[in-house]
Design a protein that fits this description.
- A four-stranded mixed sheet has the order 1-4-7-8, with no helix packed on it.
- The protein is an alpha+beta fold and about 220 residues long.
- The chain has a single domain (about 5-220), classed as Phenylalanyl-trna Synthetase, Chain B, domain 3 (Phenylalanyl-tRNA Synthetase, Chain B, domain 3), CATH 3.50.40.10.
- The protein is built from six helices and ten strands, in the order E-E-H-H-H-H-E-H-E-E-E-E-E-E-H-E.
Length: about 220
């Protein structure tokens, strides 16, 4: 695995684990590999709010809560957005690789990011967002305030800058059609409510491998 995710030593990252899944040789022409996703989403919808235990939801929010950042409302974890979308019959369909990430996030309650590895680079850093840091997260030019938010950062000549997080990912490294490689990051709390992280990694790795030349995973730290 080429992707390297280091943890910043001064960012309040205690009690956080991250699953890293890397896939290369993405096959954008693969036919039918995502056909079962609608059935999975329908089954999840039938289970309602009980799909993810309240204790896991609370633990995930606790993992994100830091300094001025409060994981509620529009700032809630992306996994909660996906559950709400599923219950409302409006689950997003983007492309096979992003859809796989969203399905695993929905089922596990863990927020997940996916980036174009050629755009982000393989040298990455996990830290909290600094005051004043923002990035654009959609094609409409909307920006998210990253202060104290848990972020995956990419290396630039100016230092490490945020490019993904557990709420919304940056347009700068989003995965679009034709990208050859991708890296996904599953954010999970340490302790009992993070016990499903390895299985989530295996599940996502399995989905990605169906439309990629290779896929592998590990957990940090």
């Amino acid at each position: 695995m080429e992707t390297r995710l280091r943890f910043d030593g001064d960012s309040g990252l205690e009690g956080i684990r991250v699953g890293v899944i890397e896939a290369s040789g993405l096959d954008w022409q693969a036919a039918g590999v995502g056909e079962r996703f609608p059935a999975v989403i329908t089954e999840a919808r039938a289970r309602g709010e009980g799909l993810v235990a309240p204790t896991r939801k609370a633990a995930v929010r606790g993992m994100l809560r830091h300094g001025s950042y409060k994981p509620a409302g529009r700032a809630k974890p992306s996994s909660e957005y996906l559950l709400q979308a599923a219950l409302e019959g409006d689950f997003p369909a983007v492309n096979y690789f992003v859809d796989a990430v969203n399905v695993v996030s929905l089922l596990t309650g863990y927020p997940i990011s996916i980036v174009d590895l050629d755009k982000s680079g393989a040298d990455l850093l996990l830290r909290r967002g600094r005051p004043g840091e923002t990035y654009v997260f959609n094609s409409g030019g909307q920006a998210i305030d990253l202060t104290d938010l848990l972020c995956v950062c990419r290396a630039t000549p100016e230092g490490f800058v945020p490019t993904a997080n557990a709420v919304r990912d940056s347009m700068a490294t989003k995965l679009f059609h034709g990208a050859p490689r991708a890296a996904a990051f599953i954010y999970a709390p340490a302790g009992p409510e993070g016990a499903g992280l390895e299985e989530a990694c295996r599940s996502l790795r399995g989905y990605l491998a169906e439309a990629a030349g290779s896929a592998e995973w590990r957990v940090e730290p």
